[in-house]
């Protein structure tokens, strides 16, 4: 059987065009991908005027993290997340934040695990903040002494966005707690919580 050289050339041309089209479709899809839910929340934080540093994307393998609770080791689902820092009051307060996306339908059980984690920390009615609304569950554990080092942990759990924002609050100066320091701490946390809640 004879091969028609013209038809063969046409076929090669068509295949080359198809390959080129598929390659560029793939590139367009990758570059035009919509931002994730985590990206959208971070954009909202910035629009609220919060400035962050040292943002790192979570390497999401495995899709959970383990915590120690009153029931032992438990797993909180995490399908996406970022870690970053926020500083306030002339760098006196530096807060490490973790924003995590729960697996679909898992936010309620993840919230229960976090509550048990706070209990494991030794939270008492005097040191524990707990506020539950239809939109956000707020949990906080506060060390009453504002010395140097970690002085608090705070979590905002969003049912709407199925996201968990955890804040590890560090007080940097070495001096003992004073009334002025209390005022600085309260003002900084009020600003951070107001602006982050607006996005969750």
Automatic annotation (TrEMBL):
Sorted alphabetically, the keyword list is: Signal
Q: Where is the signal peptide?
A: 1-30
Report what the protein is called: Uncharacterized protein
């Amino acid at each position: 059987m004879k091969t028609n050289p013209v038809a063969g050339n046409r076929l090669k041309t068509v295949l080359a065009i198809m390959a080129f089209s598929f390659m560029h479709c793939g590139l367009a899809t990758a570059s035009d991908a919509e931002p994730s839910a985590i990206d959208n929340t971070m954009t909202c934080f910035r629009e609220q005027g919060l400035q962050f540093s040292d943002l790192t994307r979570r390497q999401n393998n495995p899709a959970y993290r383990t915590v120690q609770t009153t029931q032992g080791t438990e797993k909180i689902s995490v399908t996406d997340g970022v870690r970053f820092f926020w500083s306030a009051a002339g760098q006196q307060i530096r807060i490490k934040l973790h924003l995590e996306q729960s697996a679909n339908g898992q936010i309620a059980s993840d919230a229960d695990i976090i509550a048990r984690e706070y209990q494991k920390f030794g939270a008492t009615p005097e040191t524990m903040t707990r506020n539950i609304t239809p939109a956000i569950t707020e949990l906080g554990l506060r060390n009453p002494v504002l010395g140097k080092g970690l002085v608090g942990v705070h979590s905002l759990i969003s049912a709407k966005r199925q996201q968990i924002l955890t804040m590890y609050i560090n007080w940097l100066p070495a001096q003992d707690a004073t009334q002025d320091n209390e005022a600085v701490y309260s003002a900084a946390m009020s600003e951070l919580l107001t602006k982050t809640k607006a996005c969750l």
